[in-house]
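The methods section describes the discrete structure representation at length, but only in general terms. Each protein is reduced to its one-letter sequence and a matching series of backbone shape codes. I believe one specimen quoted in the main text would settle the matter. An entry of this sort, consisting of the sequence and the corresponding backbone structure tokens, reads as follows.
***
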Amino acid sequence: MDQIAHPPETLEGWYALHQIFAVPPASSVAADVESRSSAVAALRELECPPEGGWSAPVSLIGSRAHAMVVHFRPTLDALGAAQRRLEREPLVRRLTPVYSFLSVTEAGLYHITARLAKGAAERGGEVGDETYRKALAEMVQAELASPHVQRRLYPQRPPEMPYVCFYPMSKRREAGQNWYTLTLEERSRLMYAHGLTGRRYAGRIVQVITGAIGLDAWEWGVTLFARDPLDFKKLVTDMRFDEVSAKYAEFGEFYVGRLEEPEAWVDQLP
């Protein structure tokens, strides 16, 4: 059976939104005491909402932007409500939106999908037939029971990991280097090797992968948390030498900074 361009099954969890802002020149956003207090109260309200998920402000370092707010919510509507709540704040309205990224936490099931597709070919069936769907449902339930998968779909704010690195990325679609024309088996092999690199940084970096196909111009977002920001450089360097990144990865702009308490986030606006 031809496996060309067959997509992997995926599991999805919380919706995610990264909002990135710059302070306009000659702005006095931090000098307005009333606006400052109101923004702090809004961020406190958003950081642990009753519907689940969380929000966190980040002070950016070394980029054209000054501030980022990261939101995770169980539904797209709840994410939209968080966005609107923050943007109602007078202080936030004085900031200049630089970039935003809409996505959803994702666990790709490359290995499972490749195994099921191979099994369908061997028995003379088809991908998506009743036997395939039944086996897939059983495997999905087993995956969802895994604490590792639960952490990927419903990531918590990592304690004692204050540094944050966010960047969007896509897979290359060029003649001779088109990710989407590889067989499912080959993509599974490449992603497995790529995952092994990330596992070497367990305990040093928490990685949150969000899928954005159909939601944003880029296809995935990567949000990293670390104790030591040098680990961002080391991890990304190592991963770029993986075959999947060396041949097929395209990267957007990197945003790096530090998680802050709302009061400190407002105080550090230029």
